[in-house]
Amino acid sequence: MRFLTAKRRHRAARPALLVLALLLMGALYAAVAPAARVSADTGNSQQVAEGKALFQVTCSSCHGMNGEGTSQGPSLVGVGAAAANFQVSTGRMPMANPGAQAPRKQNTYTDEEIAALAAFVASLGPGPAIPTEDQYSGEGLSPDELAKGGELFRTNCSACHNFEGAGGALPNGKYAPSLVGVSGQRIWEAMRTGPQQMPVFSSGALPDEDVRAIVGYLDTLHAQPSSGIAFGGLGPVAEGLFAWIIGIGGICLIAVWIAAKGARAR
């Protein structure tokens, strides 16, 4: 009997030791991990709280009290701080009146309020963060990199924004805004977040060095003085059509005038 009792105790000892070890590991993790998390969040939690309070006053009527979305506006979970920074800093949000597209207008928020709103939106779910200057700056690029930026822009962007980035009309009352004078940060944020009808260009499709090349190309293009009549930068086909209409049309009018004058002289 003693032998059996000892054997049973010996078999039960192993699971007991395993449970004890798990408890010790859990206690150790609870003691260490929360402390690290709190220390990393010390400078951000207050900003998130301020952003949430401002969001619930100015944005919740369309996006819900916690950014979950409503019938009036989409969910903001996972859009990231870059999306909030882009929409608010360009004055597109809050949107005063519903329409086909939110227009760019004067921003009414301070930099601190925009940063707080962006921090709150970022806390709702993982998404693109506000970029640093080295991610979007087009300064210091070589001629080859600028040429690559032009090729990338014409391939991916000119269909909507036209060859010079002057903007253009889209179906259903929407439009691609002009990129003249738009900062590299705004271009980066728009490409990464896809505002409204614009597609999202992820870092896998266009890495930051390609975005920098596009920004550098646009900065160089818009800094050049326009020679002659640009026709809005519609491209060689449209400009050639205008030239043909004006040139051939003018010649036809002159020919008709000469013929009419000769007929009167007779």
From TrEMBL:
PROSITE patterns named among the record's database cross-references: CYTC
Binding-site residues, heme c 1: 59, 62-63
One Pfam family this sequence matches: Cytochrom_C
Listed SUPFAM superfamilies: Cytochrome c
Key words, A-Z: Cell membrane, Electron transport, Heme, Iron, Membrane, Metal-binding, Oxidoreductase, Repeat, Respiratory chain, Signal, Translocase, Transmembrane, Transmembrane helix, Transport
Catalytic reactions of this protein: a quinol + 2 Fe(III)-[cytochrome c](out) = a quinone + 2 Fe(II)-[cytochrome c](out) + 2 H(+)(out)
Matches recorded under InterPro entries: bc1_cytC-su (IPR009152), Cyt_c-like_dom (IPR009056), Cyt_c-like_dom_sf (IPR036909), Cytochrome_c_Oxidase_Subunit (IPR050597)
Subunit field text: The cytochrome bc1 complex is composed of a cytochrome b (QcrB), the Rieske iron-sulfur protein (QcrA) and a diheme cytochrome c (QcrC) subunit.
Name recorded for this polypeptide: Cytochrome bc1 complex cytochrome c subunit
Gene responsible for this protein: qcrC
